[in-house]
Amino acid sequence: MVAGAGLFGLTVAERCARDLGLRVLVVERRDHIGGNAYSEVEPSTGIEVHRYGAHLFHTSNERVWEYVNQFTAFTDYRHRVFTIAGDRVYPMPINLATICAYFGRAMSPGEARALIAAQAGEVAHPANLEEKAISLVGRPLYEAFIRGYTAKQWQTDPRELPAEIITRLPMRYTFDDSYFADRYQGLPVGGYTAWLERMADHPLIEVRLGTDFAELGAAGNVPVVYTGPLDGYFGRAEGALGWRTLDFEFEVLAQGDFQGTSVMNYADEHVPYTRVHEFRHFHPERDYPGDRTVIAREYSRFAGPGDEPYYPIGTPTDRARLARYRELARAEKDVLFGGRLGTYTYLDMHMAIASALAMYGNRIRPRFLRQARV
Ligand code: FAD
Ligand code: NA
């Protein structure tokens, strides 16, 4: 049995069915498969929208790339992000074009490095996130691009956030403004849902939607791969793990193009959202209507009970609880914990798939082959 039909659970289910010939029951709490990678077509425009936020596929892992290409082809989409700060727009992450535009003059890579190093020298021993960021990029770029965005992401003044939240900030002293450096990048040609459905499309796989693993009672003596929240499995006995969540405000607009790009960040604190997604730009190759578009404004906040957990926070309290949950998880007979929620770790799609393939190869396959011999 697999709890959760996200990319981790689907990968495990697909391998168990296709490679081992096992019958697999996948239970999924939501009314659709795919976890957070799920997308759907906005009916009045035909535009594919990502319900849980923009998902861009990227990997340098040959094994993962080969694996996913069994289920879908990918477009040659290359992700780029821009940010609005004050009344200007700049490319992200901060690169030489951003630095030259911000300071209003042409600089060589060496000149830009020297300028930033001088500005970053202001702080020697950072005591909070603000000081840490200044020690990495200097005060002007921090104030323009990082302070407001960070405050909105964490709903907290960066001076009150621990320095450890950031160890580095992406800074490039070239004009390269591609968002991901991975060898393989793109979006599924037929959309995410077609890809994810193909993974589950096997006679030995049964998917039961709208079914919470916790409500099934004892699973019997069936081995389980659990990809729901780790603390939830144990009834939060050691306390709740902290997550951030996102709210998306979708809107269909009566215009062909709202912002000219797929993702626009908003750096200023007085703009309440952190980003605006415009989904038509993920698929310039598609024949979308010219007079309507779909956008989603993204807001970030701490997850309360009942909210979708998105990003693990990982305070010292969280880490202490996590250590205790991991001990409980190890002692749980015939249950493997995996995925983003089951391990309390942020995973990109390719990482979730790689980790599921590793669990399958190292733990699941040997267990069933051993059983078959006995
Ligand atoms: P999930 O996708 O979360 O799937 C877990 C599933 O388990 C869910 O469907 C959930 O409903 C179900 N579940 C939970 N509890 C239970 C239960 N008790 N019983 C039954 N079912 C249960 N990755 C990228 O590579 N590129 C991106 O651009 C990208 N953008 C992202 C943006 C956001 C906002 C977020 C949150 C993630 C993004 N990711 C991105 C990461 C990507 O979504 C993850 O790799 C993927 O979600 C991991 O898959 P998973 O199966 O571990 O978890
Ligand atoms: Na099926």
TrEMBL record:
Residues 144-346 form the UDP-galactopyranose mutase C-terminal domain. InterPro entries: UDP-GALP_mutase (IPR004379), UDP-GalPyranose_mutase_C (IPR015899). One of its GO terms (cellular component) is cytosol. Keywords: FAD, Flavoprotein, Isomerase. Belongs to the UDP-galactopyranose/dTDP-fucopyranose mutase family. PANTHER family: UDP-GALACTOPYRANOSE MUTASE. It comes from the Bacteria. This is UDP-galactopyranose mutase. Its cofactor is FAD. It comes from Acrocarpospora macrocephala. Coiled coil: none annotated. Pfam families: GLF, NAD_binding_8. The keyword Flavoprotein applies. GO terms for molecular function: flavin adenine dinucleotide binding; UDP-galactopyranose mutase activity.
